[in-house]
Structures are given as structure tokens and as C-alpha cells.
Amino acid sequence: MAQFNYPAWNLIQLARESEKPLYEQIFAQFRDSIMEGRLARGTRLPPSRMLARELSLARNTVIQSYDKLEAEGYVRRIRGSGTFVDRVLPEDHRVPVVQPALGTERSVPALSARAGRLIDLGLPPERSETLDLSPGVPALDEFPYEVFGQIAARHWRSRALSQTGYGSTSHGSTSHGSTSHGASLTAQIATYLAETRGVTCQPGQIIVVGSTLQTAALVAHALLDPGDEVIVEDPGHVTQLATFSLCGLKTTAVPVDAQGLDAARIPRDTGGGPAARLIVVTPVEQFPFGCSMPLARRRAVLDWAHAHGAWVMEDDFNSEIRWSGQAQPPLFAEDRHGRVIYTSSFNRALAPGLRLAYLVVPPDLVEAFTLAQRALSHYAPQPDQALVAAFMREGHLAAHLRRMRAIYRERSLLLADCLQQRLGESFAIPHVTAGLHMTIHPNRPFDDIAVASALSRRGFDCPPLSLYCQGPVRHGLILGFGNTRTERIPARAATVADVIAELSARPGEARAAR
Amino acid sequence: MAQFNYPAWNLIQLARESEKPLYEQIFAQFRDSIMEGRLARGTRLPPSRMLARELSLARNTVIQSYDKLEAEGYVRRIRGSGTFVDRVLPEDHRVPVVQPALGTERSVPALSARAGRLIDLGLPPERSETLDLSPGVPALDEFPYEVFGQIAARHWRSRALSQTGYGSTSHGSTSHGSTSHGASLTAQIATYLAETRGVTCQPGQIIVVGSTLQTAALVAHALLDPGDEVIVEDPGHVTQLATFSLCGLKTTAVPVDAQGLDAARIPRDTGGGPAARLIVVTPVEQFPFGCSMPLARRRAVLDWAHAHGAWVMEDDFNSEIRWSGQAQPPLFAEDRHGRVIYTSSFNRALAPGLRLAYLVVPPDLVEAFTLAQRALSHYAPQPDQALVAAFMREGHLAAHLRRMRAIYRERSLLLADCLQQRLGESFAIPHVTAGLHMTIHPNRPFDDIAVASALSRRGFDCPPLSLYCQGPVRHGLILGFGNTRTERIPARAATVADVIAELSARPGEARAAR
Prior knowledge:
2 copies of one chain form a homodimer. Helices cover about 40% and strands about 10% of the residues of chain A. Chain A is built from 17 helices and 13 strands. In chain A, the strands form 3 sheets. Chain A has an 8-stranded mixed beta sheet, sandwiched between helices. A 3-stranded antiparallel beta sheet of chain A has the order 11-12-13. In chain A, strands 1-2 form a two-stranded antiparallel sheet. In chain A, helix 11 links the parallel strand 8 (about 310-315) and strand 9 (about 340-345). In chain A, helix 1 packs across helix 3, helix 2 packs across helix 3 and helix 7 (about 185-195) packs across helix 13 (about 380-395). Mean pLDDT of chain A is about 85; it is low at about 1-10, about 95-110, about 170-180 and about 510-514.
């Protein structure tokens, strides 16, 4: 018996005392491995000389088995390249795809109750950048690929990994000193937040994680216990509900109007049950409405948190994409009681595929958040952090945002104009000055799910507003303008209007389409 | 009042009706921003021409304010470069570091009970690649930086992000088709596992996450509920305990001996309380002992799981780093009832800083795991996945592992030889054939914590075995050989022996050192 390691073939086990010739054994074992999927199509077989040496066989024996594999259609030889598992196999038209063999007594798997609730929740589909008018997706065709390529090549050449290793704390690159990259991402973010958002903090208060939902999970674990209640905006980020559910939290929805979350409707502690321990708000750019909270409501949220010993998770996700007027300062900048956790990400400023988000926490919460981060392992890889830190330090982010603001301004104005011309009588088309999407509201009955699903069949990703509602259902359509090239917007807007007109003319069919 | 966006200075708010001259207002507001840390040292101020335009002022007014900032020592002008916040500020010697202003009534923050338990747990320090003989850290100075740099530059140039966006499912790159990179990381891992570990699975069964602990959190959430019990090895990966604790699970430790986890001591369901729902094992390479489970114990674990409707989380973390003998096949390959979740990572094969780990789940668990992954947002960034997929597809991983096996073999033999010469009478020095560390066991009383902390003061990271014990304490020292260059090993081994000898001669001091 012989068995050896990658890139070799511990699948081959020779029975030297067997009557079956050795080349037949090799042939049969390769054939089985190919047919059972252990050797993928296109995989290169080991050179016959190497395999012969590993198996202590004459090279001719191996060549004989390869000949037979080729003759029977399992492999192809490419002169000068080697022997490869064929893309088309003889059994293709008669063997079903192999499934791992499970005992017949296998019942429905006993998932956790929390996973079961998750399945029941029926999450909305993920945004798709390959579809038109997809909300929240930036112009990925305008991403600074060249600069990233240059910085990445330089980063790897600098052998920075040799100084980072596990490097799991967000401050790792500061303390261990990746010399060629200097300042850490947290230091860059601290400067950036001071300059763009008026947020004053030390780099040590910034915790870099792998996504926006990781910020929510981290807040949930560091500050709340199973059974605790969290207040969310309605409509709002429904995907976050799944995260809070999995973290054991109960959610209460508070309605949003044209001035953001209606602070007067936050449930108060009346001596009955315990009040909520956390409120999640988007005070500067509400999702999906895009409105800002006026001063009185902002103060009411802060006062409520202070009075109830509760926390505020502020999602400032959109604020850097603004081309007109002033962004309000975040709640974090006004918080005098250390109750606000500020969160944001690079999803819109750069690209969601980078998976970089961050929290700013009050100084006395740093330890708890750092420990929870470690236990949940909510980290972003060091090389990615170094890449974006260098990108920021060299001024590329500022330049990129300046350029993108002009593009998004143009796209949003054009989309609003086109929609106004076609739908202005039946919809309120907002004048947006920030972000990557607009929500249009009908002024007559409108089946937003039917329209969204008809649009989806035509390659659009314009989700219905009702999908984001938990309480009373409101209808509308959420249209992104970030990822659709300017010259394509008029035609896309026309299709949206056509689909709406078509379904309005035949409401019965619209309903059937649901 | 004027306020504007990054890279500008929404910190400047002009009161045009004030008696205070405008240049004085600008000066005062920049000065305050600098002193309160909103403008970091070294930050470049906006060009005077640009700031004047943004504030609708004469350029001279801005220049006047910059003059005053310079005269008072807050900024420096560098000809041809611009105006920068000074590195040394006038107030440096009299103003304490600014802390965010918190109300005086601020009490101890009300953390969650789960975060409190985490703090009480007292996790061991993280491994440090900058210290000598650190376990589990690969030879980062031998990392293929050049190849990674080339692949990364090619990846960014290929504009692959424009096709991935959120791309959050591990199968995203297959379905959306990053054409220049072809096969996804999951497909590469499937081929790799088939070739190296005899694991047969479809790429769709592979879930790529951001770290080893994320695999544990995902298993905990998908399959277990708060209050459920999980069985772990003792000694074992104690950091995992924090993860399980934060996921609401109770842990029961089962002792490990020279043949791995003692399967006879797994608590059975006797009709009393509910049995454990999960067992976490390292059957092929136990951590920290490095032993393998014999066939009977492997079967006992599988039978126990089948009989109790429980799950097995198999951590196969070390198996690819083996230079002698054959690695056992993983439990996953023998599982006929779909109870085993296989987990591994690229921490040792490549580098922990990449933060790439993965699970292989039975086909009927894919949906639950995918949903839990989405709710917890346990993803690895697409660019990193594409990078490693290309690295594997082009055969670099196989070549790298071949090269590293020879290096680790040499380092482990040398370390064992040196330790044998100096400590052979008082310690059992193991003959290791895999992995990146060895655990030495004393045959007389030995204060491993005192020795480890004395070594730590000399720049070593050799953790005490007792730190990894939950039940009866066993003493020993865990020595890594992965990250210490071969030529340095004899001197490092000598220092270890010296420190042990020194503390053995003066046990009183050793105890005091604790």
C-alpha cells in the first residue's frame, strides 16, 4: 500500500499481492476518484515519472494505466502540458451526480431553534450589482482598480505579513509596526471622521470589522443579553433583524415619517416591563427614506437613552456620498453621556466587496467590545486594512469621493427627471442630495411587490418598499442610481414606467404575478 | 455660516454678522479643531484658494488666518506642498490629552452579562509572530510574497470587483463569474480536500468564512440553542470556549490522553438530563498534544453522535503540514450519517493574517448554514478569496507546501535534538511529524506558568500547558518551531533550558514570579 500527500494522490492504494495487475489497479482507482468527484474535471494528473517514484513502480506501469484512462475517455493528454481529467466523461449521460452516502435512517436534520426562526424569517434577496438600478451598490465600474493594484503589489512586496501574523486586534498594525505602511487603518479613519463628520475620537476607540452586520452583532453581544429588546426603525434595514434574532434579541419597530424615526413613539419605561436596552437609528440619512432627523428628535433619542440607561447604535452609512447641502453631524458628536455607538462602512465610499466596516465606541466600552470582537472573531484581514489605509493616507479616498459625488449627482438628477416626466402625476419623486438610491411613493393604489417582481424578470433590482416594513405596510419602489451608467438611465427609467403602467392597466394580472 | 465636505472642513462655521474678523474666526476654529484632535498632526489644510472659494471669501482672508496659525505654532508651511498641522503643538506641555467629554454622572457601563462572563474568563494572550518559538505561527518570512503581489496586481487590474459587489455568498464568484479568475475558491478547496484529505464533497457544501472561530460560531448558531451543551477536549483550544460562551452554550470538558479524546468518557444520555448536542474534536492532530485517535475511538465518537442525534465538529487544522507517515483520513470521510461538520483554515498552510477558514457541511445543512452565515455576516472578502483561489489553481499552494514541509521538518528535528540534549533527563521530548509545535512534558514537578512568563520577558511565546487545561491541571511547555529561523533554533532552545534550570534551582522565586 502506498499513499502520499498533496499534490499527490493518497487515493491510490496498491494491493501488491493481488492478482489484478498493478496498472489495472491504478486505472480503476483513478477512474473511481474521477467518477466520484474526488478528482475534478480539468485536474492535472501527476507526471508519470513522479507517480512511479512515489509508488515505487516502474514508470511503464504508470504509463500503461494512463493509456487505459485515455483510451476509455477519462483523461486527455496535452503534449508538453500533461495528463488532465477530461471535461466530458463517458458516464456523463448515464450516472447521476454523486451525493455523499447517507444512511437511509437519516431524518430531517435537527437544526437549532434559532436557525429555524431564521429560515421562517424569509430574508429579502441580497442586492445584486449585476442588475440595473440596484440600491446601495456604488459605481463599481468607476472603482480605482489601477491604484488598488499598485498599492496591493507594493503591499505584498513589502512583506508586511511577516510582521502581522494573526494580528487580530484592529490596532495590531500600529503596535507591531508595518513600517512600509505606517499609520494603521484606525488612525486613518479617526482623521477621516474628524475631517468629514466632526467625530472626535482616539484611534483606539475604533474597531474595524468585516461588515455592517458584524457591527450589529458586536453591539448585540457586548451590550445586550438574550431576551433583551432593541428598537428599530420601520421601515428600515430588515436584514439586521435576522442578526438581532440570531443574537437572541427581541425587536420593536417604531415608525419613521418624513423627519425620520418618530421619537415620541419610542416606548417609555412606565414601571411595567423593562424598557428596550438599545435603539438603532439612521439619523443623518434614513434608510430607505433618506430624510434627516431634526434637532428636537435627535435630542429626544439621546435623552431617552440617557434616562433609560440604554444604548444608541447610530448607522451613519451614507453620509459621505453627498453633493449638496450640509450633512448633519452624527448623534455621536452630540452625545455627552457615552451612550452612542457610531457605525459606518466603506461599502458605498469604496465597494461592499471589500467587507470593511467599523464602530466608534465610548472609551469605557473599548475593553468589552474588543473581547467580544475576539470571541466572535469579527475582524477584517490585515492586508485589506493596510491596502485601504494606504489608499486613504495618500489622499486617494478624498479624490475618489470628489469624483464620485459628481457622478452620483448627475445620475440621481437624470433618474429623477426621467421618472418625473413619466410618473410625476402618480408618484412623489424625491429630490435627493445624498446616497445611492431614491424611494418613490405612489399617490394611488400600487402593488409594489408585483412591480418589483416584474422588473426583476427584466434584469432590474428595484425592491418594493413594503418588503422593508414591519408594521403598517407602505408601498413604494426603491431605485438605485449608483451602479447604472449615466447613458443607460433614461432607457431604464422608461422601462420602470412601462412596467408600472402595464401592471396598473391590468391590476388582476399584477396580483397574479405575486 | 458655511460648511462643506471632505476633504474640506465642515468644522468652519462663519458668523458673518459677528464683530470678530472673519480671519480670526477661521483661525480660532482651526486652532480648536487641532487642539481637540479633530485635525490630526500632520494633516494637510485645504489650499487657501480652495477654502476661500468654498467659504465665498477673499483668498487673502484665508491666507491671513493661515499666517496667524503659523505664527502661533499650530501649522507649518512647506513650500510647494502645502500647509500642515504641526507635529509639535504649543499646548503640548500644558494640555492633557483630550478625552471625549462625558457627563460626571457616568457610572460603570452596563455591559451585557455575556460580555461580563467573557471578561471573567480571562482569555490567554493571542499568539505573537514577533516572539520566538510561538506555536501555530507559520514561517511568515518564507511566505510567497512575490507571487501574491503578482496575483493581487493582476486581480485588481482585471476589475473583478465590478462583477462581485456584495458577493457575499461563498459561491458568488462562480455564479456571477469573475471571468479572469474562473473557478471559485470553493471549487479549489473541494479539489484540494479530495486530493489531500480524501474528503469528497461538492463545492456548494463548502462555506468560506473569516476565521477558525467563525467556523465555531457558525456551528453554534446553526445547530445549537442557548443553554445547549457542547463537549470539548481537555486540554484543548481554550479560545473557542469564549466563542461558545458568547453563543450561549455550556461546555463540558472530556480528558485527552496519548490517543486523543477518551471516547469512553463522553457523557451518555442516561435518561437524566439531555445529552450534549455537539462534540468538538481534533481527531487527526490533537491540539496541543499532536496525537491521533485510533480507529476504535473514532468510531466511538461517530456512534455516540449518531445514537444521540448530536453533531461532530471536526477541526482538521494541522493535517496538511506533515512530513512523515500518513495523515489519517478525517472523520468526515467516514461519516455515513451526515453528523460531521469538517473545519479547517489557511492559517498554517499560508498565513493567519489572511483570515480564511472554511467548513464542509452535509448537503442537507447547507441552507441553515448559509442563512446563519448571512445573519452573522461571517464572510471572507471576495478579493482575498480570488487571490487564494488563483494561487491554488496555478499550483502555487502545492509547491509552497512541499517547500514548507522540508523547512518544518528540519526545524522540528533540530529543536527536538537541542531540547533532548539539554532537557532529555527531566522532560519527555516528543518526535513530531506534523504541525508547527511540540508539547514537552516534565517528569518531575514543574511550574510551567512561571517558566512561560520568565520566557515571555525574554521575547519568547511558549505558553504553559496548564493554560489549556480545564479539569485536572497538567504541566508542560508548548514550543513552536514554525516561525523561528533554523539557524536561531539552537540558541533559543538553550535559553529555554537555561530558564527552566534557573527556576528549578530556585523554586521559591519561580513561585514568586507567578
